[in-house]
Amino acid sequence: MEQETVKKETVEHNVLTEIFINLKRSVLLVLTIIIAVLGIGYAYARLREPEYIAEEQVIFSMGDGTYIQSEINAMYAHHPTVLDFVDSGVVVDRANFYYEYFLSKKTSGDYTVDRFVADVSFAEEIINVCEQEKSITLLRQQKIKDLENIDSSIAENTYKQTRIEIESLQQQIYLMEKVRDLMMEINELDGKKDKLLIEQKQEELLSWKEKIIQVKRGLNVSSNGPIPKTEDLIQDLDYNVNFYRKNMPWYYDVEQYKEAGKAGVTPENGIYADRIGVVSYEGNQERSAFVSGITYKDSSSEAAMDKAKIIVLAFDIETLNFFDNMNARINDLGISSCSVDITTTKIMIASAIIGFVVACGVVYLRIVLDKTVKDKAEAEKITGATVLACISKGDE
Fold this sequence. Notes:
The chain is α+β, with helices and mostly antiparallel strands. The chain folds into 2 domains: 77 residues, no CATH class; 289 residues, no CATH class. 63% of the residues lie in helices and 11% in strands. It is built from 12 helices and 4 strands. The relative contact order is 0.18.
């Protein structure tokens, strides 16, 4: 058994030795094959249509921003479901509607996708704030009516609790009015001329939003003040919602889109569901919110980037609509990247490796298929007789 193993290893060693020797003898052939394969690889790299993968990093959150344990549990439970929602029909339809409108504006002047996303995001955020403020205003109105029916002498604790709730709701309304005013101011500023002022206003806006969260947590904040009458406030809120929903050219009417026969139909050069992907970053969390990457593949790097940003926009709006009772949001972190699937360098390296392997294969086949006797030792081995003399060929 050991003799057979030694014999087998000897044969394998001899074959490898033969290949190495023949490679040295066939340097020109090996180089020719490698260069030929490199040429094919270069031609393929030049002629193929590259595919670019754009990625937008987003953060998923759920709830009213208080980040209590129930909100965190809800985010953990719904995170996979929400990410699977990104390539759903409603998201893709809205994204195609936005992309079609964006292309029509892009050709008419200097209109970037960031500007478009900012315009739509502003309108949607204003609508969201108005709807929240209206809900709180109606709740406050109901609490005031409830208070009138409570006998403070009999149900003192209930009376006090209702008063506290009314004061909290009033404070939230006041703060939301401040948020709305600041959002309007920021939207009217010029992004290039008033960059520093915009940054200051945005910091102020974040501080007001943080105060709303504190009030929802039951904490007292120093900011408080009068609010408009309930009827006037609701009328103003409804006006804003209707204005941004009906008067904006990018307003997406689902029913009209379906009636036009565009729902579920991807236009030429549009956004395709099967080109959308998700990258999850485990352990990369901020305030218990999940960071992920939304990707899109396209033959153009610019189109891939534009489409990825618009997908995130549509994804956020439809997520908020679909999970309306949970206030689920997909916020773009503004971290973008774009890469090509296979670079020319990678193709050339792969071609060189393939060329060398093919060359080795050709040399091996030449050894295997060559039935000629190479030297005196091989002749003695085949015939079993001793060679008395031999005539060498050339200088060998």
